[in-house]
Amino acid sequence: MSGHSKWATIKRKKAATDQKRGSLFTKLVKEITIAAKMGGGDPTGNPRLRLAIDTARANSMPMDNIQRAIKRGTGELEGATYEEITYEGYGPGGIAIIIETATDNRNRTVADIRHLMSRGGGSLGESGSVGWMFKRKGSIEVPRSAISEDDLMELLLDAGLEELESDDEQYFTVLTDVKDLEPVKKALEEAGIPFENAKIDMIPDNYVELDVENARKALKLIDALENSDDVQAVYSNMDMSESVMSVLEEE
Questions:
Q1: pLDDT given for residue 18 in this prediction
Q2: How many CA atoms lie within 13 A of 223 on its CB side?
Q3: Which family does it belong to?
């Protein structure tokens, strides 16, 4: 799973430098709206909505925005109707890419995704072409400064911990079954252990290590996809060596 830890590190640094709050809020509003539409507006009985609200609050979204998004999802307020569509394909160096979207215009979205993939050195594939390479998991990052690896493992084993990654210098990455993400969050909260980026993630079974040129192209493509208004999340099985990471960080 070392590739996952490195990719998490890259994404964290990217988010710190180029996150656009307006774009982030748009994606969070869509997720809250869809979650409320699918599972109802009460977060206590809707784990997806509860996670979406927690993520929105962690990113300083005002409660008024959250409540309006919930009401649009439940039909109490008028608003756009979003459809969830997942696209699959390949990127530079042969990496697999999964693109999750939420859109009110399927034709616009597929044209945009196809254009971005083609321009970025990738190509769209058929449904299922790369999805089989990934497993959906719960993922949480816990600062190393907050707890030791042994104590964290002991704390979370009964709550649903599946794997604890410790390759990152600053964070442990906790992986769980999707249904166990909420119990693991609760265990951390009750123990007073801080955590970040609790989310549902797509974890690849294997990784493709890229050289500098392909890694640069892949990051540029993923960045372009993530900046599309209709894209909610992008997953890949890219990996890179420490030396490649160092080169890219200096650019």
A1: 47
A2: 16
A3: Belongs to the TACO1 family.
